[in-house]
Amino acid sequence: MSPATATTSPSAPAKPTPLGGVGRLDAAVSLRLHSLFLPVPRLLLKALEVAGDGRIWLPVPISLLLLSASPANASGAVSPLLAGLVAGLVLDLVLVGLVKVVVRRPRPAYNAKDMYVAVAADHWSFPSGHSSRAFLVAAFLAGSGFRPREALFLWAAATSASRVLLGRHYVLDVVAGACLGVFEAWLSNLFLRFIAPDTVRITKDEELTFLQFTAKGLLIKL
Description:
Elements: H1 20-36, H2 42-51, H3 54-57, H4 59-68, H5 80-103, H6 129-143, H7 149-165, H8 171-195, H9 204-221
Protein name: Phosphatidic acid phosphatase type 2/haloperoxidase domain-containing protein
GO molecular function: sphingosine-1-phosphate phosphatase activity
Keywords: Membrane, Transmembrane, Transmembrane helix
């Protein structure tokens, strides 16, 4: 076949990037932040990773809940606060897993190979389970009357930021996770109000202030 008559086969279309152009911009910003904060001690970031790990936040509250319901408990009363927290954590596990397998966003290529993968969904990046879990716990406890709120949300924000600095997630992953966690905490507090109205110590007047405080915390994180 002569060069004049030769035809070139069309190149295969590029595989679409999850989340489109927003995802590409997010990836660039996340890589920049990861590179900029490389001097942060990895041991500190790993400690935050462990502090928000589901292998701690699921078994421990469930075990305490079962203990409170056991005959060994003199009062014989199940802790409503633990019941609400466990309900939120289970909801978080389900929702995060579903979104991960639907969106199927790969984790950053520069993510180190020292990450523990519990289930297949953990291979995907969006949203961050650590971020959703941390903000769920912080918002739920704050909504249940625990103080100081600032310390709770500072821990949640630091845990979320560590996911980007470790290279585990992109910025959008942790922002989406934080928003999801706050929503789950709201649902969990509704559940807690239903099963034990007296347990939730936050008043109706405080609820708007709490929501405003949470929104400010998310904006600062952004």
